[in-house]
């Protein structure tokens, strides 16, 4: 690792890392918007069905996103320590353990999907469509996990271009297949699920090719299945707090979905569209958190906390530019954005009020992502988890339930509660980030892997 660089060079490195990650998010968001627009022209309830089933599959995604975040922290620190052998070891052990776990979970979702959906108390029509989509989409979960592992590995090594390229391929394929199956083959919501699985399979195969053949990060030989259980425990110790953080959010989202259904299925469809459009502001938050984790991990692995601090400060400055752009787009043009998905006036009005507020409060989400990314990379993975637990289950969920079922306020009150939660979590993340003094502690994890 190069230790003495100017601030201009630091900014260039951040930009070089950010561009593929943000571009990857843009591609994913654009493909999701196009796919949702295709489905939305078929029926509004189809959007709600995909949103409802996604509450379950996203819970699985949250678990493995956290696990691969733990992998990412180790890969980043080993990259900073210039230890390629341990990078290979971490990737293989994460891959094997994750495959065993996801296959079990896929079977549970396929067999008991109806029971999971009953938790939301949907109408018969909504449940039927949701179950159809969920059962088919569940077969794509193992391939989704493989792509998470691939992304985590290459980002941790400072090479986000590989997952970006795979993302382009996957999402273009998904759009083409979605259009073909829904409009050409008239397969409806089944077509959407089949399109998703097909693109995930291609993405996973491309990822394995890059890991095993092109970059030779892993070797698939007779020793491939040998692993150290203690190593896996250490990886999961770092990753599971991030999993629980995401799971807290996903479980909270399930409760919020249940609350929104009290306002009707049209409101649920509007919320689902709002989440899609909101990803414009969520993109920078995710990207800045990843970049913060990568650079802090690299320099703590190289025992240079002072350099890690310089990178975080520059990332914070850079974040404001993208935040302003996102705020302008969401805050001032919400109805135009919602109009891409539907021409239903009620849906447009409900979704627009949500999107506008998210645009103006996105700065808190973006800053929290940077602080939490730095804390994770330094080994303080429990801190973001507890902040998420507090924000979701002490502020967001209880207040939304009170406003919906006790005080019976209108749906806009839910959006205000979400904004309050974002402000509180950002404030807590910043306070703990400053108090932990992570750049002097240099809490390296490189000794935790045999």
Describe the structure.
The protein is mostly helical and 450 residues long. It has 15 helices and no strands. It has helices at residues 7-40, 44-80, 84-118, 124-137, 141-156, 161-184, 188-214, 229-260, 265-301, 305-332, 334-338, 345-377, 382-406, 412-436, 438-441. The longest helix is centred in the N-terminal third of the chain and has 37 residues, at 44-80. The model has no long low-confidence stretch (mean pLDDT 89).
Task: Describe the structure concisely for a colleague.
The chain is mainly α and 450 residues long. 84% of the residues lie in helices and 0% in strands.
Q: What are the SSEs and their pairings?
A:
Blueprint lengths: L6 H34 L3 H37 L3 H35 L5 H14 L3 H16 L4 H24 L3 H27 L14 H32 L4 H37 L3 H28 L1 H5 L6 H33 L4 H25 L5 H25 L1 H4 L9
Key phrases:
mainly alpha; 15 helices; 450 residues
